[in-house]
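Subject: Sanity check before I submit

Could someone independently write out the C-alpha cells for this chain? I want to compare against mine line by line before I put it in a report. The sequence has 323 residues.
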Amino acid sequence: MLTIAAFIFVIGVLITIHEAGHFVAARLLGAPVEVFSVGFGKRLWGVERGGPDYRISLIPLGGYVRIIGLGPDESDVVGDSSTETELLPRWRRALILLAGPITNILAAVVFVAMAFTAGVEVPAYQSEPPVVGWVEPESGADMTGIRAGDVVQAVRGEPMATWGELEVVLLTAGGGVLDLLVERDGTITEIPVTIGRDSQYGFGISGIEPPLEAVVRPTAPGSPAATAGILAGDLIVSVEEEQVDQYYDRPRLIVPHPNEEIRIEVVRGHERLSFVVLTMSEGGQGKIGVAPVVPTTLQKLSPLAALSAGFVECRKMTHQTFR
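---
Independent answer below. Compare away.
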C-alpha cells in the first residue's frame, strides 16, 4: 500500500512540474490560461487570480493546464470556452509544448543537485581504480581469463578511470560481448568477455566484482553467526582453516556445509578470535546469516558544484537508460 501511495505521489509531482512548464511558458508568451489544476476531475478548492483558475481537483494523479488557443495538439490543454478562439502562432505553440519536458529535465537536475548539497553516501570503491577484486567462477569473465588483480583500462575503447564507471558499463551492457582492455603485471591485453543477462531486470552479469574485505554484520539476532558470538565489524580471516582474502571467499567455503558445525576465525580490533558456528540450511546450502559491510563515503558539494554534478549525473543516467 505504501508503494502504491509513493508511486501516486511521485507521478503526481512529475506531471504537475510538467504542466507548470506549460503554464509558465504560456504566461510569458501572453497566451490566455483558463485553468491550472493539481489533480483531475471535480474541483475541490481553488482561487481565481489574474485570470487563471488555480484549483485542487479530486483525483491526485498529476494535473493539467488549460490554455486557450493551443489547439488540438495536446488534448488536456485545449481551450473549452464558448467563444471561438484563434490558434496561437505556431512558434508560440511549439515553445509552450516544449516547455513541459524541458521543465522536467531541469527539475531532475535540480533534484540531483539538492541531493549532492545535502550529502550523498556512495560506496567507497566506486571512486577507486577499476581493479578486479574477484571473479565469479564459471562466469563470462572467468571463462575468458579475467583474474583478481587485473586492472580494466578500457571497455570498447572507452577509458575506465574508476570502479564506478566500470560498474555502470558492465551493468548496462545487457548481454553480448564486451572488449576489455586489461593490464596484468605491466602487460596490456584486450580480452573479449561474454556478458550474461539478468532475467528479472536485464542487467548485465559479467562475474567481475570490486575488492571487498570480509568484514561482516549478522543479519538477525538469532542467526548462526550472532548466536556463535560474531559481531558487526568482525573481519573473517579463515573458515575451516582455509584463508579468507575477500568477502566473496565466504560463500565458497560455507555453502558446502549445511547444518554442520564449522570453525570460523575473525579479527576483532587487535584480537584474533575463533568461533564454532552451526550453519543453517537454505535450499541445501550452508548459511550463517551475515551480510557484507560496504564502506561508504559522503559526497557533499557546494550549491554551484552540486548543480554542475547534477547536470553530469542526469546526462549519465539518461545515457544508461537508453543503453
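---
OP: Matches mine. For the report I'm noting this point. Confidence is low (pLDDT under 50) at residues 73-83.
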